[in-house]
Structures
1.
Amino acid sequence: MSPDDDIPPEEICPPCRGTGKVISKLGGDPHPVECPWCHGTGRLPRPTADNGS
Ligand SMILES: [Zn+2]
C-alpha cells in the first residue's frame, strides 16, 4: 500500500506524476524543474463540468 493511496488519480498531475517536478532538457542538460502544470504541488484541480466551450 502506498502513502499516496488516498489521493484520487484524477488529482495527481500527469506530467510530473505527483512529484511536482519535471525533467527539463532545455540547454541540452536534463534537470528537474518545478512542474508548470501544477506549480510544484504535484496535484491538479479536479476537472469541472464547466466545459461549455
Ligand atoms: Zn505537475
2.
Amino acid sequence: MPYFKDIFKDLQERSDNPDKGINKISLLDYAQLPGVLGDRFFVVLDSDKSGYIDQREFLTGLFRIFCSSFDDKADFVFEIYDFDNDGFITKNDIQTILSSLPVINFSKNAENTEGKYTQEGGGLDNFEQRVETMDEMH
Ligand SMILES: [Ca+2]
C-alpha cells in the first residue's frame, strides 16, 4: 500500500513527535470529520493508546476503511460509535455524536435541484417523497 504510506509520512512530518507517529491535530486535519467523530476516529486508530498513530496503526485503520469486507467496515464504524467501549451502542452514544454534528443547512441543497428529474429515482430526495409519489399513483 504505497499510497497509504505516503499519506502516513506526510502526516508524520507534521506531528510534534514524528518518532512516535501522527499526533491528533494532524489526523483531525486530514480526516476532516465533524464534531466528536474526529476524536473517535483517532481513539479507534490508536489501538495501543499511546496518543500517537504509528505506521502500523495507520495502515491497519485505512485498510479497514478502504480495503476490507463490509463486516470489517461495520466493525470499524461500530467502534467509532461505541463511546464507552462496552460492546454496545447506547442511546447516549448516538446522542453524543449527533449533538456534536453541525446543523445541516437544507435550504442550501434546495438551490441545487436543477436537472434533478433526470437523476436516479426521478430526483426524489428522500423516502417520504417517494412514499407520497407512490400514494398518488394508486
Ligand atoms: Ca498508538
